[in-house]
Amino acid sequence: MGKDFSVISGKDGIAKVPDIKFFGDPDTWKLISKTWSRDQGWMKSTKALEVKGVGCFLQVTTQQKNTRNNSSAVAEAVTFAPGVQIVDGKLIDSTIRQVKEPVAKKESTKFAKQPKTA
């Protein structure tokens, strides 16, 4: 049995993957979008993890099956988007939007050049 790319939540995984196991909340990261092709062996997804009042971590994942030897390659990237929150509709239809201007970074004086003293 191959990987089921259509799983979109922990509850969905329980229904579709007989030997699935969890540690912690499997839906901590909210699914924003997902697309896949079982025949072509690829999957792309975007997930978000909100830090209330601060912003969201966004994760993108791409998985591609190598048709020559049946192996898979996975690429992932994570970034933080300040001032963004998750607006829930249905889980698969979650969206993100800018809710406030990002907080300006304070200038660090740790490595700033100090004025010369006589």
For this entry, give a set of tags.
118 residues; mainly beta; four-stranded antiparallel β-sheet; two-stranded antiparallel sheet; 1 helix; 6 strands; 6% helix; 41% strand
- Average pLDDT score: 77
Count of individual helical segments: 1
| Percent helix range | under 10%
Tell me the number of strands. 6
Strand arrangement in the largest pleated sheet: 1-2-3-4
Secondary-structure-based class equals mainly beta
Strand percentage lies at 35-45%
Kindly report how far apart the N and C termini lie. 76 Å
Q: Globular, elongated, flat, extended or rod-shaped: what is the shape? A: extended
Give structural notes.
The protein is mostly beta strands and 118 residues long. It has a domain at 28-98. Helix content is 6%, strand content 41%. The strands form two sheets. A four-stranded antiparallel sheet has the order 1-2-3-4, with no helix packed on it. It has a two-stranded antiparallel sheet with strand order 5-6. β1 and β2 form a beta hairpin. The longest helix has 7 residues, at 10-16. The chain starts with 9 loop residues before the first helix and ends in a 20-residue tail after the last strand. Residues 89-94 have low confidence and may be disordered.
